[in-house]
Amino acid sequence: MPPTRPSTATATPPYPSSRPGSSRPDSPAKSATANSSLILRKQLMADDRPTDTLWEGAILKARLIFPPLTPVYNTGARKGEVCVSILHAPGEDQWGYEDAGERWLPVHTVETVLISVISLLSADVPDLNSPANVDAAKEVREDYPAYKKRVKRLARRSAEEAYD
């Protein structure tokens, strides 16, 4: 889904670059679990946070355990899965919603995935054309003030729980 406005997101983590697992100052923290799967963690805050959006002021934790992502209430997220075009299998979209260039390419990084998630959350009115979360899309269409109130409540809660 193309961003509705340019993203001000950066990949600068909120911790020193000397953190174990960081290979560069702008890389997210990395850790291996007992089963050796790669977990990438990043806290979206400061310059990463969307401004002038329903999610303004939120402090969101992102933990990428490939493939599951942290859930949010949005038309592009359902049952803990975020629907971001650049994570879709390469090639042509069988339903014709996406160009091949919008789908997975080897040039994508954790940073570009996180920027895509930030872009997904930055739209005051999310994409209703092919929603992953039909309930959220229905609420946007039928009762936008209730949707807006729910998202703002979740944004506040995320900020309160950011350091738990």
From TrEMBL:
UniProtKB keywords: Ubl conjugation pathway
UBC core domain sequence ranges: 1-160
PROSITE patterns registered for this protein in UniProt: UBC_2
Alphabetized InterPro entries for the sequence: Ub_conjugating_enzyme, UBC, UBQ-conjugating_enzyme/RWD
Keyword Cytoplasm set for record: no
Region (Disordered): 1-36
Compositional bias ranges of the Low complexity kind: 1-28
Superkingdom of this protein's organism: Eukaryota
Entry protein name: Ubiquitin conjugating enzyme
Species annotation: Trichosporon asahii var. asahii (strain CBS 8904)
